[in-house]
Amino acid sequence: MQKKGYVSFVLHAHLPFIHHPESDDYLEESWLYEAISETYIPLLQNFKKLVDEGVNFRITMSITPTLLSMLDNKLLQKKYIHYLNQLIELSEKEIERTKYDKRVNSLSHYYYDKYSNDLHLFKDVWNCNIIEQFKHFQDIGVLEILTCGATHGYFPILYVTEETIRAQIAVGVQTYEKYFGRKPRGIWLPECGYVPEADKYLKEFGIDYAIVESHGILYADPTPIYGTCAPIVSPGGLVCFGRDMKSSQQVWSSIDGYPGDFNYRDFYRDIGYEADYDYIKPYIAHNGVRVHTGIKYHRITGKTDQKDIYNIRWAQDSAERQAGHFLDSRTEQINNVADYMEVPPIILCPYDAELYGHWWYEGPYWLYILFKKIYYDECNFELITPSEYIDKYPNIQVSSPCRSSWGANGYSGVWLNPLNDYAHRHLHKAGDRMVELATAFPDATGLVKDALNQAARELLLAQTSCWLFIITNGTMVDYAKKRIKDHIGRFTKLYSQIKANKVDKTFLDAISLKDCIFPEIDYHIYTKL
Fold first, then answer.
1. Which CATH code for domain 5-16+32-64+125-267+312-409?
2. Whole-number average pLDDT of the chain
């Protein structure tokens, strides 16, 4: 069948920087360990299977600077190995505990094998270096990796002080180059938050294109001829790809999206909440609060509390069927638009990477089957990366994208509302003060230079959009508020000490150990424009 168009998968891999060398009690650190075992390792394993099987595929991923920093952190690598050892020990106990229930017992064996394999792969095969695995697939041409704002700061609010947006972009690009040995061509705008004020800084640091929300394209001026089926280029020279709503809904929708299939693993039923308390206590939170362990025995079953036991083969059957449905849907979609376009359409499918595996356990397998089907079956499209599309079809309509985000209702309400608005005056003030410091101390050396660089780190960490999102969402609110307060507090203390020429080395050393992100940072990036 003749190829009439393209489909581009873009997965956004992001976690906020969480690093607590002072304690093992922080539940939030487990977000990273869960994501490694449930999303990053399964994706990498499936990429390898596709390559080994000779399947030519393309996928795009943003791996944020905060996530890269955590994956490269030796203490967090050590803690992840401890996390796996705990799960292996628990699943071994589960094999014994469930021996009288054949269906559950087979799953206990499955988890024991899975976490044992994760440990072997991570520690012995990859030498704890997951970043190098992603780099390998980029280097052989099947994966394109995007950058992001340094700490996922939300541009549509930060642009009040433009130097802070410039710094987010500069440090994001610098971190990317450090790990991948090349410059990034594309960026996943944090929260897909587009403002035209950022274009000039994105272009300054060599960014060709960005991923934006659907209405950022659909409400662009003038109205794009091809909607989201082709990119547009802003007057500032930034190419923008918009999310395709139809394909997103098939995966994301809580009502009719694929992850709600009754055969799939139920995320919420976990032995951390269900096993006898004394038995499970060593494997839950240090303070005794029940939490997810990752060992889950039930399938979604339906809208009922009476959940049936998970069946891996049934789940795979559903994934295979839905991969076929997705392929047929994109084939039809491209057929419907291709004849009306002067260039082949591109259907852009962006998702949070953690949807694949962590939330939707079967997601990585679904991708693997889908990519094989696209390669082998009769269909009218190919997989492509945004960079490849730009290189093939450089004539792009000039249009000004609409200010937008992928938050609820498409604007900034998630990150600026009565629950979290108190934080912004502190974030803006700190941004202005950082510009003041960088401009006032152009030639700092020694301890003052170290303090200025640490002040820049504290500001970046305070700007993480996740804290504002968590406060709005009502999960882990105390932790998110504490992070904003701690980073602003540390920044303000450093600001006062630098201004007074009285930097407290003990204080600086203590916070530098905790907030050890971006070791190569240069505070001059904040010098007044």
1. 3.20.110.10
2. 95
